[in-house]
User: Fold this.
Amino acid sequence: MSNLGIRRVAVLGAGTMGHGIAEVFAMSGFEVNLMDVSDEILRNALNRIRDSLERLSRRGELREGVDAIMSRIHTTTKVAEAVRDIDFLVEAVPENADLKKSIFREADQYAPPHAIFASNTSTIPITELSEATSRREKFVGMHFMNPPPLMKLVEITRGKYTSDDTVNITVQLTRILNKEPVVVNKDVPGFIVNRVLFRVMLEACREATQEGIKIVDLDAMARNVLGLPMGTFELLDYIGLDTSLFIVKAMTERGFKAHSCPLLEDLVSKGKLGVKSGEGFYKYPGPGQYVKPRVLPEQGLELDPIRLMAPAINELAWLVREGVATVDDIDKSVKLGLNYPWGLSEFADEAGIDNIVDALTQLKNASGWEEYEPDPLLTNYVKEGRLGRKSGRGFREYPGVEFRRYEEIMLRIDPPSAWIILNKPDKLNVLTPKMADEIVNALRSVEDDPRVRVVVITGSGRAFCAGADINQFQNATPMQMFKAMRHYHSMTLEIEYYTKPVIAAINAMPLVVVWRLLWPATSG
Ligand code: NAD
Assistant:
């Protein structure tokens, strides 16, 4: 018995998720009553659990023998029997609200009054399900990721009536299971992981549909530039296109603002469901035979990673502003639930929150879609100068980072380096005499600063600097041109004779170079 007073747990439904959840509980020492509609399904579930435990045992990941763990799992086809003497219940039957409610109603009659009920639903409101029981305050969402024995994250969702005690016990229980809990404080459709995931997927889909960007190039960019483990469309195929469509529809029906993906609808209507049917966005050797789609290392490098991620950052802002989850928990969710190599707030702070807002504004103007409206949290951050790492503060604080804003450049002192950022994100030809002067001033201001050992000059947005802003020279007299050139020459002389190394981090096409400088972990 855990010190939470939980000894016996019921898992209702022994399918894809249920058998894995039962395995996780049994591995942590709990007695498990596993229930499904037929003995055959239960036998099959026990075989899958045994196979999985044996694999873990061969890898030395079990503290006790497979038989000892299996002996704690008891099967039944009757709800009343499954919930007798339990302290906790996890429901994992198919995603159908009426079915789930009828099971909870029945379980409520036979389970001890103190037992907590949890649902593994992905899309049905926890509040609605809890209303089928007489223990609404002891009812909580407990969303495991697939496959439960391997995936660390569990989203714990508070329904309208869920008590603090219930949330706290479920959080502690999740830790005993050796999982990482994140608390979703409001019963919002898609919780955290699915909301973020589908923001990225729907933007990728829009770029493919409306701009004709190749699916494989978008997936290549996600892998090569962003360092994600899977491309967006590859992941959709893996999850199942019917399941993905079902989740998006269920979320939008409940108020998640989004336009559907016509590519997804079309494939599903043709029975192309992804890996499980042998074809989806990609073709596979046969049904259920996953082969990772091939992308070349140089593929997708010209595409804009900030634009792909901006809607997900907007979602992060909404979740934080609405008090649904903390920045830390959202970062944890994408790292552990989606295997992203970085958290969303870390991405936003590196990319620049002003650049995220610009990307969203352009998307909104081009599409007219409401979901691209930059969240007030982001626009307020920009107004306050909280632009991310470059300004020393964004979603997170960067202590020791000092930020100086000039008119055309920014200077970020991030010891041991100082970064001069040519701050004209919309332009390619950025250099003006004024900018040249500001670069000289910035260089001089840190030359004797003992914290700074190297100065890096870089662009903002997608471009470094393709040359001088020639608009400046329209109608200029030869003498004015001569004077303008003096500014440029002073700047190059300053750099040439500078007493510390000066590096150009050239973004634009090879944005990936800077990206990998900032995030060495993503280079592959
Ligand atoms: P599944 O279809 O693989 O398994 C559901 C099981 O419930 C089946 O074995 C079925 O026989 C059983 N069942 C049906 N009616 C029942 C009843 N009246 N009593 C007891 N058992 C019954 O489904 P799944 O993928 O395991 O999904 C289960 C839940 O978990 C859903 O709510 C789903 O949204 C959620 N979920 C799924 C995933 C995933 O990747 N599959 C991930 C997270 C959450």
In short: The mean pLDDT is 93. The two ends are 45 Å apart (CA to CA). The pocket of nicotinamide-adenine-dinucleotide is lined by residues 12-18, 35-37, 41, 92-95, 103, 120-122, 143-144, 146 (CB under 6 Å). The domain at 307-391 is CATH 1.10.1040.10 (N-(1-d-carboxylethyl)-l-norvaline Dehydrogenase; domain 2).
